[in-house]
């Protein structure tokens, strides 16, 4: 039987970050295919459609053709156990994505070879950087007209301030894309040599780029260009440095074409060999080591209505330490109460099943009726408050009104639930009866209105406000806080946890508040640990 530390060493928990359309879905599908988790490429999408067809509240999602819900996919490869956490690509749901990134140990950044770094890539990268997360880069769509590889590497280095080391080097592009040379393992991988189904071959092992064998495998001009370019790239880029990679300062870069299965094997090998096993997790009390015997974990995401027939919510918990077994009694940090985890769910590529056990780095789903919230921790008894799971100040604020004024109380309950799930920020101004709802993107309001209508049977509309933004306010001295709240009662609200929030009418109002109240901190993010 393997020990806890063996299980830890085998785990790779990661996410794919990309701008919409760069190829995240295609790559996910191929990774699952090669990991043996799905039989046929296309299954990820098919499953998505099936799920959408079954769920009413996801109407908006279906109409817009975007995936709001994110999930976890587990598969084995190369003796390691992978957990791939899917992140919604649409920018309106980036808050969900940010929190998902708190539950992974590394990320694969997918770029479109014709486009390079795009807005959303950059935003997501910044979140990874906050956590010094190791990143492996995959430059996709080399089968199309692409930008010059040097230009792409330079862009990653310059715009993200991240050192790059090419892990493979492309031979041609577009219609003339012949394949790649694997610089880490000295292998030539040619397009068309890989099986369309199943794992592509490992390529032709070489004795470096001077191996005369290459002359029989590649046209003379392509080989000359390859040798020249790799020579240049080696001169320009830093050699691979594991420590710098693990600290998030250097990214190995693969080139490929996900749709043609090309380069995916090398990427998967790269994740297996380079990406780190579960990292220690910070809490307000102490750092938790994954190989500790006692079980601990935290909720990073809540999803309602995964099964529309049951009004359940699933709390996604990242196991941080210990060997979790079904039926365990764990202490819920926020309430201090013990909960028996009877029906934890494990997510497989196509299915959910009961989790009999789980190890550090694994994600389990805990069905509940609202007791669990984002940021909540679990332990075998110790008081642990996990840090670094943020809420973000919303960029869009609207007033929520029930179509039928008599349903105001029901609306309040619905909004509280959505806020606890992390689907929106909800603020109750100290003065007045309205609810102010905040979102990071406008589409979130449509999804919310749809859910409130169908799940809570409260027809609701959102009206524009004259508010500019919201900031959580904090002070070291309770007296200072009281003074501030008394003087600004018309501009202060409470969030769903009762934390005070300053609602600014405009940028000047916000600046003025900060200037007039130097002892008050105006915060754009709220850590769930106070
Ligand atoms: P996303 O999840 O990042 O949004 O991207 P997705 O995988 O859905 O890919 C976006 C589009 O790019 C899709 O085309 C997909 O087929 C295409 N694509 C992905 N990888 C490659 C590649 O390596 N080479 C080329 N040439 N295209 C690639 P679509 O027409 O928008 O969708 P579909 O009809 O093919 O599903």
Describe this structure in words.
By secondary structure, the chain is α+β, with helices and mostly antiparallel strands. It contains 15 helices and 33 strands. The radius of gyration is 25 Å and the shape is globular. The structure holds guanosine-5',3'-tetraphosphate. Guanosine-5',3'-tetraphosphate (G4P) binds next to helix 2. Guanosine-5',3'-tetraphosphate binds at residues 18, 20-26, 89, 140-141, 143-144, 257-259.
Spatial shape? globular
Strand portion: 25-35%
Which structural class best describes the helix and strand composition?
A: alpha+beta
Summed over residues and divided by their number, the pLDDT gives a mean of 85
Q: How large, in whole angstroms, is the Cα Rg?
A: 25 Å
Number of helices: 15
Cα distance, first to last residue? 41 Å
Walk me through the topology:
Blueprint: H1 4-10, E1 11-18, H2 24-34, H3 43-54, H4 59-64, E2 72-77, E3 80-85, H5 94-101, E4 106-112, H6 119-130, E5 135-140, H7 149-160, E6 163-166, E7 168-171, E8 179-182, E9 187-190, E10 204-205, H8 213-217, H9 220-236, H10 242-246, E11 250-255, H11 264-274, E12 281-282, E13 287-288, E14 296-304, E15 313-321, E16 324-325, E17 329-332, E18 337-340, E19 345-347, E20 352-354, E21 357-358, E22 363-368, E23 377-379, E24 390-392, E25 396-402, H12 408-421, E26 425-429, E27 435-439, H13 443-456, E28 460-464, E29 469-475, H14 478-487, E30 492-494, E31 500-504, H15 507-516, E32 520-523, E33 525-527
Parallel strand pairs: 1-3, 1-4, 4-5, 5-11, 6-11
Antiparallel strand pairs: 2-3, 7-8, 8-9, 9-10, 12-13, 14-15, 14-23, 15-22, 16-21, 17-18, 17-23, 19-20, 19-22, 24-33, 25-27, 25-28, 26-27, 26-30, 29-31, 29-32, 30-31
This protein binds guanosine-5',3'-tetraphosphate.
